[in-house]
Specification:
Helix content: over 70%
Radius of gyration: 26 Å
Shape: elongated
Distance between the termini: 79 Å
Largest sheet: none
Length: 227
């Protein structure tokens, strides 16, 4: 977790004023300008805080959410099983934005624009990487990327349910999340079984090839001895 700086304090003040307005006006340059003014921040300081305007503000919104997630996870019990860790982390990340779900919905729409695709990928990767690292993942091979890709799909689809969930205590979102995690777990089991099956097939062919080579070598030796 990163420590806050005086510049972060300014960003927090602006974002706190902006979030209720975003629900009505969306993520726009005009909304940011008003938020800076209503937060009592000097316009020049606001420019330093968010030099790229609304893009920087969007990035900070998600970054702050990630940091708040880590703080909440650090304060709570840590499950032992990986599956439970991932479920707890995703729930925690979503609940960080509980009070500003409309701002989150509009942020997701803003990131869906073609020009922000690289930014959306970067923000999603950062969230998934933080969750996996908190869960104790130490993979460095292909699994490192596959785990983060699968988790990105889980978070993205569950967020879509969460932003419009009116069930008690977001029960519908958590049921959906559990189903998505179960689907991924089944896929991982299938992948592991297929990998093991192919490994056995490969070993079988290696044994066959080895036996053929030995028989041919023995035959050649026998023929040579009869010459």
């Amino acid at each position: 977790m990163t420590e806050t700086t005086p510049l972060d304090d300014i960003r927090d003040r602006i974002l706190a004023v902006a979030l209720p307005e975003i629900a009505f006006d969306g993520w726009s340059g005009e909304m940011l300008r008003r938020a800076v003014e209503h937060a009592g921040v000097d316009p020049n300081a606001g420019l330093v805080a968010f030099p790229r305007g609304i893009d920087d503000m969007l990035g900070y919104f998600f970054d702050r959410g990630d940091q708040n997630m880590l703080m909440r996870l650090a304060d709570g019990p840590t499950p032992e099983r990986i599956r439970e860790k991932i479920a707890v982390a995703v729930k925690t990340r979503l609940l960080v934005d509980q009070e500003h779900r409309e701002a989150l919905r509009r942020a997701m729409a803003a990131l869906a624009l073609p020009g922000r695709a690289p930014m959306a990928l970067k923000l999603t990767y950062r969230t998934t990487d933080l969750i996996w690292r908190w869960a104790g993942d130490k993979s460095t091979d292909y699994n490192f990327y596959s785990k983060r890709t699968l988790l990105a799909g889980i978070i993205g689809s569950t967020r879509l349910v969460f932003i419009s969930d009116e069930s008690d205590d977001f029960a519908s979102s958590w049921e959906f999340l559990d189903r998505r995690i179960e689907n991924v777990m089944q896929f991982e089991k299938l992948k592991a079984s297929q990998t093991g099956r192919f490994a056995k097939v490969g070993s079988f062919f290696q044994d066959v090839i080895g036996a053929v080579a030995r028989r041919r070598y023995a035959s050649d030796r026998h023929a040579a001895s009869n010459d």
